[in-house]
Amino acid sequence: MLLCGICGGMISAQAQLQVPASYALIKRVVPGYAQNFVVQPLSENEGKDVFEVEGAKGKIVLRGNNGIAVASALYYYLTEYAHCQITWNGTNLNLPVKLPIPAQRVHKTTPYQYRYYLNYCTYSYSMSWWDWKRWEKEIDWMALHGINMPLAITGQEYVWDKVYKGMGFNNKDMQDFFTGPAYFGWFYMGNIDKWDGPLPASWITSHRDLQIKILQRERELGIKPVLPAFTGHVPASFKKHFPNAKLKQTNWNNGFADTYILDSEDPLFAEIGKKFIQEQTKVYGTDHLYSADTFNENEPPSNDPKFLSELSARVYDGMKGADPKAVWVMQGWLFFSDRKFWQNEQIKALLNAVPDDHMIVLDLNTDYEPIWKRTEAFYGKPWIWNMLHNYGGNNSLFGRIEAVATQPAQALNDPKSGKMVGIGLTMEAIEQTPVLYELMTQHTWQNKPIDLDQWLPEYLFNRYGVKSKDALDAWQTLRATVFNGKDIRDGAESIITGRPTLDSAAVWTRTRLNYKRKDLLPAWDKIVAAIPTCKKSSGFNYDLVDITRQMLANYGRPLQLKWIKAYHDKDEKAFDKYAAEYLTLITDMDRLLATRKDFMLGPWIADARNRGTTPAEKVLYEKNARNLITLWGDANSPLHEYSCRQWSGLLNDFYKVRWRKFFDLLKGSFKTGKEPDFKQFDKSISNWEWQWVNSSKTYPVAPAGSSAAVAKQLYEKYRTNMDKDLK
Description:
The chain is α/β, with parallel strands linked by helices. Helix content is 47%, strand content 10%. It is built from 29 helices and 17 strands. Strands 8-7-17-16-15-14-13-9 form an 8-stranded parallel β-sheet. Helix 3 runs parallel beside helix 4, helix 6 packs parallel to helix 10 and helix 13 packs parallel to helix 15. It is globular and about 75 Å long. The termini are far apart.
C-alpha cells in the first residue's frame, strides 16, 4: 500500500525513462536475446514521445524518452528488421540466431500526445477473469504498441467500499450495490446494481492488490493510466442513510432494476466526489486523468443548456476539489448513441463548462461516425480519434480497413480538427481481428495515411514468417469484402447463434453482411491453398480458422432457407435432411474452433472458476461467465445474444441444443397439422437457457486437433455446395 501511495507523489518523474524497467520488458518479450539490446535515454521532442533504433558494436541500441518509447523501438526493430509480430491471436518471434544489426539510425517522433486504450465494456467482455500473468502480458502489448493512456478501473470496488463504509454504510448495503465481476463495466457506468452478486470480500481485496501491481508496472514504463471519478451513482440504500438527499431514480431499460444517481446540486455530490478521489489516490496514486461518464445511455432530466452546463461544472468541481490538476477524460459515446437529445447546443453547454486544459473528449467511434466533424472539433476541447470496431465480443470478420488506414492522419492534418491530441482503441472486446489493431497502432509513429498496398504484404510476412502469394491474394479479397466497412455499423452475427426462428435474423442477431456471401469464397480458396507454405505459423492457423469459421457461419443462412422451404412445403423428408445438415454444420464448426484456444468456451469458464477461493465463489463466477455470453440478464433478458460467441463448446452445448429443440417443435406440426406456438417456445427456450446459465460443466482448456487438417477437411466437404448455394 505504501509503495502506491508514494507513486502518487512522483508524477513528474513517471514520464522519465526507467532503464531497469525497459530491460525487464525486453527480457519478457525476447528472453533469449535480451543481451543483444542496449537501452539508452533520449530527450523528449517538444513534449512528444520519441525513439531511436541504431546498431553499435554488434548490439541493437534502443533509445527513448520513456519506457513506452523504448518498447516501441523494440517492436519497430522486431517488425522491420526481424519480421516478427506479437498479437493476441498468434505471435511470430522466430528470430534468427544472429540478429540483424541496423545499418543506420532510425528516429521516430509521435505526432500524438495520447494513445488511448480500452472501454468500460472491455473490462467485462474480455478481461473479467484476468490474473496478473495475463495483465502483465497485456501491459507489455500496450507498451510495444505505443499505448500510453489506458483506462484503469480494476479494483474500483475497493475504493467504493472504503468510501461508503466510511459514511456509515454496512456490508448488506454494499452487497445490494456491487454486481458480479462480469458486469462491472455497466455497474461502473451506473447502469445496473447488485445483479449476479453478491460480490465476495475476497474479490475486493484481491483486485485491490492486482490494481496496485497493474498501475506500478504501467507507470514504470511511462504509461499514464486513467482512473475513475464519481459521477453520482450511489447505492439504493442511500436514501435510508441520507433521507434528505436529492436522488434521481433511473433505468437503463434493459431488464434491470432502477439505479440511483445523486443530483450534482446536492452538497453531498462534491463531498463524495472529493472523498472518492482522495481514497483512490491513497491506494492507487494518480496521474491526474479521470474518467467520468455522467449519462451513459441514460438521458438527463433536462435538455436546458444552462442545466447541463451547471451539471458538468459540478462534476468537474468534484474532481478538482480533491485534485487541482484533474483532467476529465469523457467518453463521447452519448453524443453518438443519443443524438436526438444531444444537439449541438447541449453538447456545447456540457463541454464548455470545463476549462479546455482540464478535459479530453474521446470521439469513441470515429471510424464509423466522426462526431468531431459536427461539433466544430468538440468546441475547442482536446480530443482523441478512436476505433471502436467490436461490440459485445462477437466473432465476426469485419472492419473499416481503408478508414482506419487513412482517416486518423487525415483528421490530424485537417485545419478543422482543432485540438486533436491523440488516437485510441475503444473496442468493447479484444482478442480478435488482430489486423485492425496492428494497423491502428501503426499510426502512433507517423503523421501520414498508411498505404495498405505496401502495409498489408509486410503485415502478412511478419505474421506468417514466410511470403505467400496465395495468402496475400486471400487478404486482398478480405480487404474488399469483410473489411470494406460498407453498409453496416459493426460485424454481422450468424443466424446459428440467434435464438431459433424462421426469420433471417433475431434479437441482437443481425445477419446482414457488407458483402455477398459468394464474394468471400476466393479468400477461402486462397487461404486453404496457402496451407502447405504457412501451416507452421500460429498467426496463419488463427486466420485460417477464422476465415473458415466465417464461411461456415455465413452458410448457415442458405441452409436455413432450405429447411424453412421444406417446412412450408410440408415436405417432411426434405425437412429432416436439411435440418440434419444444419445441425451437422454447427457440429463441424465446433470441431474446427476446438483447434484454437482463441475460440474455446473452456478457458473462459476455467478462468472464471479459478478466481474463486471457495466452492461457492467458483459457482458464482461460473454463472457470471455463462450468463454474460448468453442471456446477459435473467430468463426474460432483452439483451440475450448481445454478447454471443462462436466458441467450441458453446456451439455444441448451447446453440445446437436450441436448434434441435426448435426442429422438434416444427416436426410436431407435421403430425398435428397445426401451426406451432412460437411464443410458448420462446418462453420455454429462455427457461432452458436460464438452466444452462445456472449449470456447471468442465470444458476443455487445451485445443484439440490440427487447425490446418480440420479446415482442409471442411473445405473439401462444403466448398462445392457453397458454389451452388451462396449468392
